[in-house]
Design a protein that fits this description.
The protein has about 300 residues and is an alpha/beta fold. It is about 40% helix and about 15% strand. It has 14 helices and seven strands. Strands 3-2-1-4-5-7-6 form a seven-stranded mixed sheet, with helices on both faces. Strand 1, helix 2 and strand 2 form a beta-alpha-beta unit. The longest helix has 15 residues. The model has no long low-confidence stretch (mean pLDDT about 95). The protein binds S-adenosylmethionine. The site of S-adenosylmethionine has 21 residues, from helix 2 and strand 2.
């Protein structure tokens, strides 16, 4: 199947990244390569792009789809939480701009065999990196009902987290839960009909997202990335992050705030004693969101939030 992903907020990304000709940029989340292509079209004739993805399929696809840029494109199968190491390995200390468009790609959701979608029967997998150890099957079949409850509540904000966790525990006593369809059915049946009937989303949406976040440790990698990324920017370079989940956006918002105001002195100190200097400015105080016309064309963009900071 062709690798498909509609790049979200493409105009805003290219505008806010401030792409210079001949600059060195990083796309931390290559996916279908749409944002990467736009950067490469603007940082020529000699600019370079390092594009990462933890999914080998995205990397292999880009070898063909972005082949016309091959002299200027460095593709690496890597987690963006290890960006600092990857940049060191390829001999770049600082970038002119870094982009991260977090989450899954449409390709993941469309490929039944990757096990991300409750709408397509497939194995319970959900790994973005197919070589990582933990799968959705492991979580669904070996986490205690308390642990399942916590991830459904915390990552999915699922109102019926407890009922669903208990139902999973009962089912797997009979036999292990193997497919996305079996799990989606268990979740659907655990939610009282009067609630699922009223809901605009599929009853399994929130739990599937929660399991996916846990399988891929998505928040842990985002936090590690945010620790390193500001130091990897040249002066005036920008870090642009697109998120799709309120917890991710909160992590980015809080980290950006902390970077903008790094002083750790108690609020009643008349002068700053910690001597921590501000190194960034916030380009977007409020997150940017896609316009209505984009959401009409690509409904998967509806929960996107984009935040941008600039290194001083
Ligand atoms: C929303 S898609 C990116 C789409 C891309 N911007 C485009 O224009 O097609 C997110 C991609 O990031 C990858 N990804 C998610 N978390 C990652 C991480 N921690 N490290 C590296 N890649 C990651 C996923 O495998 C997926 O391919």
């Amino acid at each position: 199947m062709e690798y498909f992903h509609n790049s979200v907020m493409a105009d805003e990304v290219t505008e806010y990244l401030n792409i210079n000709s001949n600059g060195f940029y990083v796309d931390c989340t290559l996916g279908g390569g749409g944002h990467s292509r736009l950067i490469l079209e603007q940082n020529g004739p000699d600019g370079k792009l390092l594009a990462l993805d933890r999914d080998q399929v995205a990397i292999d696809n880009a070898k063909t789809s972005l082949s016309r840029f091959k002299e200027r494109l460095i593709l690496k199968k890597a987690n963006f939480s290890s960006l600092k190491t990857v940049m060191k390995e390829i001999g770049f200390e600082k970038a002119d701009g870094i982009l991260a468009d977090i989450g899954v790609s449409s390709h993941h959701l469309d490929m039944a065999e990757r096990g991300f979608s409750f709408l397509k029967e497939g194995p319970l997998d959900m790994r973005m990196d197919q070589h990582s150890e933990k799968t959705a099957y492991d979580i669904v079949n070996s986490y205690s009902s308390e642990e399942l409850f916590i991830i459904f509540k915390k990552y999915g904000e699922e109102k019926f987290a407890s009922r669903i966790a208990n139902r999973i525990e009962q089912k797997r006593k009979i036999c292990s839960i193997k497919t996305t369809a079996e799990l989606a059915d268990i979740i659907k049946n655990a939610i009282p009909e009067k609630f699922s009937r009223k809901s605009k989303i599929h009853p399994a949406t929130k739990c599937f997202m929660a399991i996916r976040i846990e399988v891929n440790d998505e928040l842990g990698h985002l936090e590690k990335f945010l620790e390193d990324a500001p130091d990897l920017l040249k002066p005036k370079a920008r870090l642009c992050i697109l998120t799709f989940h309120s917890l991710e956006d909160r992590i980015v918002k809080n980290k950006f705030k902390e970077l903008e105001n790094p002083c750790t002195c108690p609020p009643d100190f008349p002068v700053c004693m910690c001597q921590k200097k501000k190194e960034v400015r916030l380009v977007t105080r409020k997150p940017l969101v896609p316009g209505e016309s984009e959401i009409n064309i690509n409904p998967r963009a509806r929960s996107t939030k984009m935040r941008v900071l600039e290194k001083l």
